[in-house]
Amino acid sequence: MIADCIEMDRLSSEIEELGNISEYPLPAVTRVLFSDADLRARAWFKERCLSADLSLHEDAIGNLFATWLGQDPDLEPVATGSHLDAIPNAGKYDGVVGVLGGLEAIRALKASGYVPRRSIVLIMFTAEEPTRFGVGCLGSRMMSGVMPLARAELLQDENGLGLNHWRGRAGHVSEMSDVLLDRGAFSSFVELHIEQGPKLEERGIDIGVVEKIAAPAAFRFHLTGAGGHAGAVLMPDRHDALLAGAEIALAVEKAAITSGSADTVATTGVFEVKPGAINSIPFAVKMEVDLRDTDMAARERAEKMILTQSADICTRRGIECSLETINSDEPAVCDANLVSLVEAKSLELGFSTQRMISRAYHDSLFMARLSPITMIFIPCFKGYSHRPDEYSSPEAIRKGVAVLAETLKSLSL
Ligand code: HGY
Ligand code: MN
Ligand code: MN
Ligand code: MN
Fold first, then answer.
1. Which residues hold Zn(2+) 1 (predicted)?
2. Closest Cα to residue 96, out of 121, 119, 125, 120?
3. Does the C-beta of 361 come closer than 6 Å to ligand 1?
4. Considering 27, 63, 320, 333, which has the largest number of Cβ atoms within 10 A of its Cβ?
5. In this structure, what DSSP letter does residue 66 have?
6. Which domains does the chain have, with CATH numbers?
7. Which ipTM did the prediction report?
8. Which atom of ligand 1 is nearest to the CA of 386?
9. How many A from CA of 362 to the centre of ligand 4?
10. Predicted TM-score of the model (pTM)
11. In the prediction, which pLDDT does 294 show?
């Protein structure tokens, strides 16, 4: 049995080892795109792939493709993968389970003596997290053409440094046009990931089979008020950017709650105030809003409400408001045959399964534009994620890896 060839001790120690490559003191993990920690993690992972006799290719922005060549290498390969970058103060499992678990699935298939007809490619995507440039899934977004090259060239981090600066510093100097892949570049893509929600653990379910992936829309507000002396300016004469931003943040929450869909979620995750002195009325706010739903109509209703309310708030308070849409993506529907295949493999292995939607976005959201996709979810502790106490047990991970290995075998026969 392939499952008997999974070496959980090795995989668990690799997850621990990778967890130690971080910009934050442990147990928090941070690996922002092309930071020193990210570069160390990438080098470490490439070593692991080479030890598993996989051939490596990196594209112009550092998407890494580790390939197990099949007997018929001209056929479109089967792909799996996820990300190793991590937002500030994150955990050890988000993305990592799909990358190291994918590597373990391939090693177990090799150890079982299986020889694939189609090549199997393990992808480590660049910048699934939005931290560096404010946009998530940069690697898969560019691979699938959702992010045109011209737009990617304009991206800048908070210090005004662009993608060319950072990719060059990481040694990726080939033509950026090599990132874009054609539809059909892969025969299918299956991503293993922690659920990042509490459902599987609460219900004691081993495997979540993802049918739909919620799509994010993200907005950046720049609010400009009058500022002034905290003692001298009377209340009726103020144009306080922070209070306008606070009202907008509450309007964001209300828009999600009243959208008519329980799956609409909205978060004001970035809120920067200037000048940041106790005796100075805030004259400027930068705020970023993340809005999601699998139901586009509900998401659009919430978006409309946010935009209308924020304009009213700023007019009433005499605040200048400039609004930028960072991204506004379509949800992804997973391929019904792949969903049934993952379900069947799970049941053959004696694991319980549940079909579900993904509230987090993933690289699968954009890989869906290149090939049929689905995702395999495993339970995580209380659904916690993007926090240092994120956790999935070795047994939960082993089950996910076993299902992934069997699925990759079926798809590469
Ligand atoms: O935000 C997300 O859904 C993903 O974890 N980057
Ligand atoms: Mn994440
Ligand atoms: Mn993730
Ligand atoms: Mn994700």
1. 83, 94, 193
2. 125
3. yes
4. 63
5. E
6. 2-214+331-412 (3.40.630.10), 215-328 (3.30.70.360)
7. 0.88
8. 5
9. 4
10. 0.91
11. 87
Task: Please report, for the chain, how many H helices and E strands are present, in that order.
Answer: 12, 15
Q: Residues 243, 313: contact at Cβ < 8 Å?
A: no
Task: Kindly give the distance from the C-alpha atom of residue 32 to the centroid of ligand 2, in angstroms, as a whole number.
Answer: 11
Whether the CB-CB separation of 376 and 399 falls below 8 Å is answered with no
Distance 361 CA to ligand 4 centre (A): 5
- Whether residue 376 has pLDDT greater than 90: yes
Residues whose Cβ atom is located within 5 A of ion ligand 2: 94
Query: Count of residues for the chain?
Result: 413
Tell me the longest C-alpha to C-alpha distance in the chain: 79
**Residue 258 pLDDT more than 90?**
yes
Q: What is the pLDDT of residues 296-321, one digit of tens each?
A: 999 999 999 999 999 999 999 999 99
Q: Which of 270, 386, 387 gets mutated to test ligand 1 (max ligand atoms within 8 A of its CB)?
A: 386
What is the DSSP track for 175-198?
Answer: -GGGG---TTSSSEEEEEEE-SSS
- Which residues, including other chains, have CB under 8 Å from residue 249's CB and lie 6 or more apart? 268, 271, 287
222 is in an annotated binding site: no
Is 172 marked as binding a ligand?
Answer: no
